[in-house]
Amino acid sequence: MNADEFGQRVLEWFDAHGRKHLPWQQNPTLYRVWVSEIMLQQTQVVTVVPYYRRFVERFPSIRTLAEADLDEVLSLWAGLGYYARARNLHRAAGILRDRHGGEMPLDIALVQALPGVGRSTAGAILALSTGQRQPVLDGNIKRLLSRFAAVPGWPGQASVLARLWTLAECYTPTERVADYTQAMMDLGALVCAPRRPDCRLCPLAMGCVAHAQNREMDFPGAKPRRDLPVRATRMVMVRLATREILLERRPPVGVWGGLWSFPECPLEADVVDWCQERLGLRVAIQPLWKSLRHTFSHFHLDITPVPVIAEAECAKAVLEGERFVWYKSDDVQRLGMAVPVRLLLTALTDDLLNYEDRNE
């Protein structure tokens, strides 16, 4: 199947079956498409849609995003995961404001230079919003092309990726590029699915080498398996009798970078001594809670919550500001925090309210 026929079949399928009503397809500006493409990295459309709507309603332009407080950006991102994406969006918006007049450039090299934007994302931004002819190679398109051309090997390998980029460049048409790009993403997500590809509905089935050989599930090659390592931490949930709970901002890089969390005590340390030495707080340990496990893409994190009560008279030893904050439950929504932390906070707040109800 030559490139012209390939593109024609893809576009005919899109006209009949492609997705045309996603929120970022309505008024597809460079900014709106950029936000959607960052959110869609490693995240399914159905999950992204409500986050996207809230995000662009609050930050309708590059300038409003650039001028926003990072905490608010992270709080709107909470639950979507991969928080570096939110930090990169915020940082890139500042760059676009300061260096490009608050506008997204049309040069793919400049777009790709933005934090969090790789070659495929840059191509998708320009193709979907302006129709610029740029090949795109997201996860769905990698799978589709791997099967169509029976490209052996895992796409994370440099040689396999280079072959897929060559195919993507070859098949990208010169007209209706935005529709073609969306169609390829949709075909991969809806038809050429990872586990149950529905080849009966695929417009490319007659030219697909994997289908002809009845080997659809052999492509793309699997990522080499490795067991995820397990890390452990203790989160010290410090509260006062007046119900304020201590939160600490995490470092800007690393796990949950820039988000608010509970202070973490080394496993080998005595919690009471550690609170005195590091936080300047005299505390009494409460009954321990059950541990919980949170799984990242590259490791498991076992969290042991340690609730403690601090003496109110020494609470001022922990200075509020950039690093620490004492908050009550009505502050939670304005603070960016990871889902496990928010769940623990909610449980701790409920526990405090129930305790007060029992003692009234």
TrEMBL record:
<dbReference type="InterPro" id="IPR029119">
    <property type="entry name" value="MutY_C"/>
</dbReference>
<keyword id="KW-0004">4Fe-4S</keyword>
<dbReference type="GO" id="GO:0006284">
    <property type="term" value="P:base-excision repair"/>
</dbReference>
<keyword id="KW-0378">Hydrolase</keyword>
<dbReference type="GO" id="GO:0035485">
    <property type="term" value="F:adenine/guanine mispair binding"/>
</dbReference>
<dbReference type="InterPro" id="IPR044298">
    <property type="entry name" value="MIG/MutY"/>
</dbReference>
<keyword id="KW-0227">DNA damage</keyword>
<dbReference type="Pfam" id="PF00730">
    <property type="entry name" value="HhH-GPD"/>
</dbReference>
<keyword id="KW-0326">Glycosidase</keyword>
<keyword id="KW-0408">Iron</keyword>
<dbReference type="InterPro" id="IPR005760">
    <property type="entry name" value="A/G_AdeGlyc_MutY"/>
</dbReference>
<comment type="function">
    <text>Adenine glycosylase active on G-A mispairs. MutY also corrects error-prone DNA synthesis past GO lesions which are due to the oxidatively damaged form of guanine: 7,8-dihydro-8-oxoguanine (8-oxo-dGTP).</text>
</comment>
<dbReference type="GO" id="GO:0046872">
    <property type="term" value="F:metal ion binding"/>
</dbReference>
<keyword id="KW-0234">DNA repair</keyword>
<dbReference type="GO" id="GO:0034039">
    <property type="term" value="F:8-oxo-7,8-dihydroguanine DNA N-glycosylase activity"/>
</dbReference>
<dbReference type="GO" id="GO:0006298">
    <property type="term" value="P:mismatch repair"/>
</dbReference>
<dbReference type="InterPro" id="IPR003265">
    <property type="entry name" value="HhH-GPD_domain"/>
</dbReference>
<dbReference type="InterPro" id="IPR011257">
    <property type="entry name" value="DNA_glycosylase"/>
</dbReference>
<dbReference type="InterPro" id="IPR015797">
    <property type="entry name" value="NUDIX_hydrolase-like_dom_sf"/>
</dbReference>
<dbReference type="Pfam" id="PF14815">
    <property type="entry name" value="NUDIX_4"/>
</dbReference>
<feature type="domain" description="HhH-GPD">
    <location>
        <begin position="39"/>
        <end position="190"/>
    </location>
</feature>
<dbReference type="GO" id="GO:0032357">
    <property type="term" value="F:oxidized purine DNA binding"/>
</dbReference>
<dbReference type="InterPro" id="IPR023170">
    <property type="entry name" value="HhH_base_excis_C"/>
</dbReference>
<keyword id="KW-0411">Iron-sulfur</keyword>
<keyword id="KW-0479">Metal-binding</keyword>
<dbReference type="GO" id="GO:0051539">
    <property type="term" value="F:4 iron, 4 sulfur cluster binding"/>
</dbReference>
<protein>
    <recommendedName>
        <fullName>Adenine DNA glycosylase</fullName>
        <ecNumber>3.2.2.31</ecNumber>
    </recommendedName>
</protein>
<dbReference type="GO" id="GO:0000701">
    <property type="term" value="F:purine-specific mismatch base pair DNA N-glycosylase activity"/>
</dbReference>
<comment type="similarity">
    <text>Belongs to the Nth/MutY family.</text>
</comment>
